[in-house]
Amino acid sequence: MATTLVLWDIDHTLIETRGVGGEIYADAFQAVTGHPLKEMPALSGRTEPVIFREALKANGVTDTGDLYQQFAEEQARGYADRIDELRRRGRALAERDDVIQSVLTGNTRPAAEIKLRAFGLNSYLDFDSGAYGTDDDTRANLVKIARQRAKAAHGSRFDAAATILIGDTPNDVIAARDGGARVIAVASGSNSTSELAEAGADTVLEALTQTGQLLTAIHGGQHPK
Predict the structure, then answer these.
(1) d(Cα 204, Cα 198) in Å, to the nearest integer?
(2) Do 111 and 213 sit in the same domain of this protein?
(3) Is 148 among the domain residues?
(4) CB atoms within 10 A of CB 218
(5) Spatial CB neighbours of 189, under 8 Å, sequence gap ≥ 6
(6) Which H or E element spans position 163?
(7) Which among 94, 105, 170 is positioned nearest to 131, based on CA atoms?
């Protein structure tokens, strides 16, 4: 029976879309609003619905009440249509399959699945045990949601010491700590190792290629007091 739940952040941790994701976002935004995406709010560590609402505001678009659902569907179609381009321009990072692995992401579930399928990572992940941007606006709340789903799916209880979030931003670190999980921060995005350490990460790695340190952090780490 699995005793550890590992929740991966997707963007800049497991994969890099190298600009494809931004292009798909802009196309989907214009398709559902009729307005070009001229300004984009900060993305780091935030959920898709929050980002979308702020993008509407920044671009002077009034929400009719159903724009986000339309956008999510259009965005998923964009990823599906450009999956070959995503494979060519992106890159994937390796991970392991001896524990329950899922995702904790601001992405919608369809977008998350398509992105990870493009790199062949979908077979390693239990998407039913994950938590997504459409589940809650507050990222820390996604930890509890994922833990509950993993328990329902696998019959195991994953407490704070047995739940690990792996991400690349201070917001990921804060979400894990506020949500009651250990956190491994990887400096694969725009934040430095020192910034991630200052945010309170239990373990900070320069890259996921530091396999030995990653496995030690997953299996030998202690939850902070």
Answers:
(1) 10
(2) yes
(3) yes
(4) 18
(5) 11, 12, 13, 44, 168, 169
(6) strand 163-167
(7) 105
CATH assignment of the domain containing 106? 3.40.50.1000
Which tokens hold the place of 159? 């407490």
Angstrom distance (rounded) from CA 50 to CA 180: 22
Per-residue pLDDT tens listing for the chain (225 residues): 678 999 999 988 888 888 898 999 999 999 999 999 999 988 776 889 999 999 999 999 998 888 999 999 999 999 999 988 888 876 643 344 568 899 999 999 999 999 999 998 898 899 999 999 999 999 999 999 999 999 999 988 999 999 999 999 999 999 999 999 999 999 988 899 999 999 999 999 998 878 788 888 988 744 443
Please compute, for residue 212, the number of CA atoms within 13 A of its CA located in the half-sphere on the CB side: 0
